[in-house]
Write a structure and sequence with these properties.
The protein is α+β, with helices and mostly antiparallel strands. It has helices at 2-6, 102-116, 173-187; strands spanning 17-19, 30-33, 46-49, 52-54, 61-62, 66-67, 70-76, 85-92, 118-130, 133-143, 150-160, 163-172, 191-192. The chain is globular.
Length: 193
């Protein structure tokens, strides 16, 4: 349990409903939409930042917010070994800095996992939209270092010149397919006000 909290980003998701767009390249991206069959398992909208809201899963306890250059919020799920968590992080660019290359930012996030997970492998990559915001999604598998515990997770990254949002989930590989759909339904309620 403590080992998973060590590497910090978390949200489990499955059950995508796809709606296609048209026009320019971004409008042709898949629109990821929260699966309505999970609506009763989500709490009402909460503010994660001044201008962002989402509906966390019911029964998940909100962890303390951390605020430096990274605003970090988490919701910890009911006890499992290890605990499934939904993690939201907002990283703001420092003065004069701009985040120009989304692929580079996504690679940086994935490098953080690679450094903390043994036998790390990205198993799926996609680009789509959540409520109008372009996200890069990566699903990964690995093992907690020095332990025979296999884990699986998914990370969504949204990049703008002034900030980056990283939302992620992880769980035991054996429980991931069970926990992912609810976490995904929660994540896909993310809305910019």
């Amino acid at each position: 349990m403590a080992s998973l909290k060590f590497f910090g980003s978390i949200v489990c998701l499955t059950g995508f409903v796809f709606v296609s767009g048209c026009e320019d390249a971004d409008s042709k991206l898949t629109h990821w939409v929260s699966d309505p069959t999970f609506a009763e398992q989500l709490d009402p909208l909460v503010n994660v930042t001044a201008d962002m809201t989402l509906c966390p899963p019911k029964g998940y306890e909100r962890g303390p917010a951390k605020s430096l250059s990274v605003h970090s919020f988490s919701w910890v799920g009911p006890e499992t070994e290890p605990t499934n968590t939904l993690m939201y992080q907002l990283l703001r660019a420092t003065s004069g800095e701009k985040f120009n290359d989304p692929e580079e930012m996504v690679a940086g996030v994935m490098q953080g996992y690679r450094e903390n997970i043994a036998v790390f492998e990205i198993t799926d990559s996609a680009v789509g939209k959540i409520n109008g915001m372009k996200f890069y999604r990566r699903t990964w598998t690995g093992r907690i270092p020095k332990q025979p515990i296999e884990v699986k997770g998914t990370v969504w990254v949204h990049v703008e010149p002034t900030h980056m949002i990283s939302i992620s989930t992880q769980d035991l590989a054996s429980k991931y397919d069970e926990s992912f759909p609810l976490a995904e339904a929660s994540l896909l309620t993310l809305t910019k006000q």
